[in-house]
Amino acid sequence: xxxxxxxxxxxxxxxxxxxxxxxxxxxxxxxxxxxxxxxxxxxxxxxxxxxxxxxxxxxxxxxxxxxxxxxxxxxxxxxxxxxxxxxxxxxxxxxxxxxxxxxxxxxxxxxxxxxxxxxxxxxxxxxxxxxxxxxxxxxxxxxxxxxxxxxxxxxxxxxxxxxxxxxxxxxxxxxxxxxxxxxxxxxxxxxxxxxxxxxxxxxxxxxxxxxxxxxxxxxxxxxxxxxxxxxxxxxxxxxxxxxxxxxxxxxxxxxxxxxxxxxxxxxxxxxxxxxxxxxxxxxxxxxxxxxxxxxxxxxxxxxxxxxxxxxxxxxxxxxxxxxxxxxxxxxxxxxxxxxxxxxxxxxxxxxxxxxxxxxxxxxxxxxxxxxxxxxxxxxxxxxxxxxxxxxxxxxxxxxxxxxxxxxxxxxxxxxxxxxxxxxxxxxxxxxxxxxxxxxxxxxxxxxxxxxxxxxxxxxxxxxxxxxxxxxxxxxxxxxxxxxxxxxxxxxxxxxxxxxxxxxxxxxxxxxxxxxxxxxxxxxxxxxxxxxxxxxxxxxxxxxxxxxxxxxxxxxxxxxxxxxxxxxxxxxxxxxxxxxxxxxxxxxxxxxxxxxxxxxxxxxxxxxxxxxxxxxxxxxxxxxxxxxxxxxxxxxxxxxxxxxxxxxxxxxxxxxxxxxxxxxxxxxxxxxxxxxxxxxxxxxxxxxxxxxxxxxxxxxxxxxxxxxxxxxxxxxxxxxxxxxxxxxxxxxxxxxxxxxxxxxxxxxxxxxxxxxxxxxxxxxxxxxxxxxxxxxxxxxxxxxxxxxxxxxxxxxxxxxxxxxxxxxxxxxxxxxxxxxxxxxxxxxxxxxxxxxxxxxxxxxxxxxxxxxxxxxxxxxxxxxxxxxxxxxxxxxxxxxxxxxxxxxxxxxxxxxxxxxxxxxxxxxxxxxxxxxxxxxxxxxxxxxxxxxxxxxxxxxxxxxxxxxxxxxxxxxxxxxxxxxxxxxxxx
Length: 970
What we know:
Residues 348-368 are annotated as: Disordered. By secondary structure, this protein is of the alpha+beta class. Among the domains are: 193-332, Jelly Rolls (Sandwich), CATH 2.60.120; 577-664, Sandwich (Immunoglobulin-like), CATH 2.60.40.10; 669-687 and 756-968, Class I glutamine amidotransferase (GATase) domain (Rossmann fold), CATH 3.40.50. α4 (386-392) packs across α6, α7 (485-505) packs antiparallel against α10 (550-571) and α11 packs across α16. The longest helix is centred in the middle third of the chain and has 22 residues, at 550-571.
């Protein structure tokens, strides 16, 4: 008799939180000599591979005894043989065949950026849908807009996954050539400009070329407020051009302020439309051209890209092509939500209902909508839930976003995302209520949903990563005949990639949770392979130590991109190459009759294919945007001629057959005149990091008062400081969530972090002072072969650089006073070259590392000593009388959350040491020394706050002018 324990322990300890694995029954077939074991569903949660399945089956055979020796042993869980659950990429061809996707009919891709390389081993021409969590929504029972989750640890799940999807995952996919679709606003700029044939934003205009055969059709109409059932793409007009021969229209927006703006186009799709309509976007960096297939993807907002625009009317979008072209509205920027909601107990009069085409009926009598309690969100549109974006972009309400009779926006929101994907595709993969709906005919390859709701652990261990898919409904096949186990394959490949990468880079024992085959709406509704990811737990502090770190966000996003890439390449039977990592060691230097930019590639220690073969150098002139770049196979680039008084800035990407890397830091150069002295600017501010944490028994959380962290470029998802630090505080409801509870005062704010573009701020002031400048990264500056001897003034940007502990106990990151850095400054000062250095942790980085060598260096060479960190709360600074007239005046630097300057929450107090050293600046708040000046055989000025955070351009210019005059005075 075969005997088993009631619970089968987890076969491998590295998988956690699986639940009980239980044997339900055994079927013995003596005639065919077959033993079939049927386990509960939990066994299917494991990431099966052939070796594990063989081992598991062998262990069962050992228990069968002599009576059943030689019987074939089969193991089933969740109705599947465990070998069937092995991802197709790891199976033999015969086992994997049914899970290979049934490729849609090959059509011209929806959108193609004409300046982009065709990445043959990337994701060129693939169409990928993805989204992030929940969003700001209307709760009709409470008659208020709110989050679907609680504010915890300065964040909220409704928006924190966005900090992976929008800054990282979507750009990585697009850099590999993919076309991405997101059911939420992806532009963070709250300005919105509409250009249309029947209404345009103030000072914006739409101009049709002459002598065109034009027919008016239904299209978009701008409305200040969208009420229930209103479809903006059904109540306006568009223009159909039947005889296009080149340029057909020009859209000219009035841009209210300089900034980055997303550009969306719209048109009526038609089988007779051109499949190659060109949209030429003229932005401040030049022009970018896209080819759009107007036979698909119409009657909605179609995202082209995000561009830098200058204030005014210098930007244009030209439409060009041959044959039949549809012209509808263009939208620039994200805007503020305009979908109005009301309590469910209010009934709209019939006069506000719509006809079957989604157009407003003519009211029988005049109705004043103000008599009803309509409410818009009052938030930037990127914060809103999918349900409202889908109404704004023209999706049919009853098929996509209004699935609960206008009574429950919460359910409508999470249900709408899968229905939206199906409507993008259309028949036979259409929405649940109408599989044969025409839809937008976009051949979506796969879908990915991102959440962080994985539970709580009492012992503060990291809960880890959970994957969810659905393979049960519709006889386990998609309408096109593809096995739904393809969703399991996608889930397995992404989860495996995430866990392996996190273990390699951050935490050896990161928990791999199960893969659930469950009927979550976001998993079962899409009619394409789909994964719902629960990366970690936003409720659990051990997880959020990672989740709030921009380095972790980048690496996990790269893992997700790699999982998608590898899955899609296998589905299409081709090889893949992972796009490279960003380059480093950037340096500008003088060469014969000009200047040269150089860099070094970065090796990816966990991905062998991510090797660059080419590079692209992007150029910016003064304060414009970057151009479309120049490709080179070298690691050097000779600069174009620089005009007097002009600043050129450069960033570099690495390219291979799989795609393009993220950009490097930005270096700049400016020439005041042929005979002007030249200063060297060293960009030594590389740090991005999570905030500080405190964990003292029952007192635990985000130590925002110590260090608020440094976002990558910008932070868009911060809610406010945590105020409940008591681990024992119970959750009562989302308005009173207990431990981790946080304020909401920063919601909707864009908080600047490390832009990696600080050189230009220093350079502008240097140029105005009448000096030229050139710049270099700290990695290149510290190298033994970099010659800085020609520069009398060295300006070192430290920003918020400070020693930051790495996750795996390796050497700390971002340390200021490395041996190479100190040696270089010793050489320069010995050569009587002068040092200007500014940063928030110029002294405290020495104190926190207890580095006596660095302490001696600061005192003996730079001539200062650390006195205190968190020197002041506000940023008012004045010059001391004893250094006048060398320095004079007052200034103010930024100490609060701002879109324009990063936050200096902990400036240093530093004091002079030795003869010829004096306090140069003091903090007005308490008269603590804020900066020192040394005037000996060489000169130094060291500031305990970053120069680039001085809020007034006039004050920056004045300070830099005084410093350089002091340095260059004999």
